[in-house]
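User: Write out your own:

AI:
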Amino acid sequence: MNQIDIDAIVKAIVSAADLGLATEVVADEVPVVEPSPEAQALAKADERAKRKAANQKLNRQINAQLANATKAFKAGDAEKCVAALKKAQAMTPEKWVSVHAQIQRKAESLLETA
């Protein structure tokens, strides 16, 4: 419904009222407005940007735990090292197979140098 349609409806109501006719406006007949393709694309891009930012933050946190494991290992604290590796493993989503492999490689690397 555009401005021309709205103007036509208003004119019809006013002229019917001027003639003394009863007018009834039905509020149930509200047109359904579909979002434009541009609006859909913007919403999708915004959603994608939010997911990307969340994933980047999580990846930084996982890398921080790997760094903590390395620091604890170099300091000779095996308990903190294992705890940091387990925390990194727990933080990582199941679908991030390459990150799980990275954590495994880090654990093996620390084990070999012990």
Remarks:
- The helical segments are 3-18, 37-75, 78-91, 97-112.
- The chain is about 75% helix and 0% strand.
- The CA atoms of residues 106 and 112 lie 10 Å apart.
- Residues 3-112 form one domain.
